[in-house]
Amino acid sequence: MAKRIAVFGEVMMRLQVPGYDLLSQAGSLNFSFSGTGVNVGSALARFGHTGYLVTTLPMNSVGDAAMAYLRKLGLTTTFMMRGGQYIGMYFLENGFGARPSRVTYSNRLESSFNTAPEGTYDYEAIAEEADVVHFCGITLAMNDSVRDHMKSLAKAVKARGGTVVFDCNYRPSLWGADGYEKAKPHYEDMLRLADIVMMNEKDAIFILGMHTDKETRSEQLAELIPEVAAQYGIRVAAGTHRSINGDNTHSLQGFIYKNQNFSYSKKLTFSVYDRIGAGDAYTSGIVHGELSGFSPGKTVEFAAAAGMLAHTIAGDTPMSSESEVLRAMTEAVGDVER
């Protein structure tokens, strides 16, 4: 059954260096608009839901271009506010071989979204319209004003019986020195409000300061995620383990913890065309599976396949339909579709 999903987050302009050049080598850049909320909301819209992006765009031609781009992605503009003069940007240099991809942020603190004042968003109106609201840790890192917006909206949706989704998505560069210490109280606030949480054992260890004597990631996961779920009242916790292989392929395995049990996807190995946004595709798969009444096993397989397909598509935003993801779960890939 299709649901109405509000996603709260910043719209960013992605400025990508063509090919595998460094920024210092490039003579041109390709631009598009993205962001975690954009990616998750548009992916869920492709799965048949209604995606409302809750954000603020500048009142100028750049904001107009972003609005037009977001409409093409299938996002509903009802709660997209206009104000301010700037949009956050990031420069993307594609990695190759031993050199990783690199993202450099610019102009984020002054963006229209990050300077939106109190009263910008009608929390009650959004909560009345949406069955689900999604937030991420990247947004949580911005400033106290943005954090107040997040928590107020989450409380409003929760009060009306809606579902709150929180993706931990911790970025050290955004929190700065002593980042884990700064982040912990805000993460705890969001975890207490959340029904579905995207996280893994590293988030529990580093952000929440939890201790384990286990040595392997899988053992740490099995010990810590149930503790987090019990402590914060989380209904579903999900995430991935990724490895990069010597031949430049990536391997991905997803997990979901629900009803005090873990379910794991098959380990998927694939080539990577564009990695940015693949985690958002996985998140959208988990949310869609939960909203559609899939079993935990089917949900995690669906999410892992959605994440895999996102690695094959240029740009941040997942573009696969539900039928395409289901096909990737069951059929060999690589043949010509006729």
From TrEMBL:
MF (Gene Ontology): kinase activity
One Pfam family from the UniProt entry?
A: PfkB
Keywords (A to Z) from UniProt: Kinase, Transferase
Domain of life of the source: Bacteria
Record-annotated Carbohydrate kinase PfkB domain positions = 3-317
Give the UniProt family note: Belongs to the carbohydrate kinase PfkB family.
Protein name, UniProt field: Sugar kinase
Question: What is the source species?
Answer: Cohnella cholangitidis
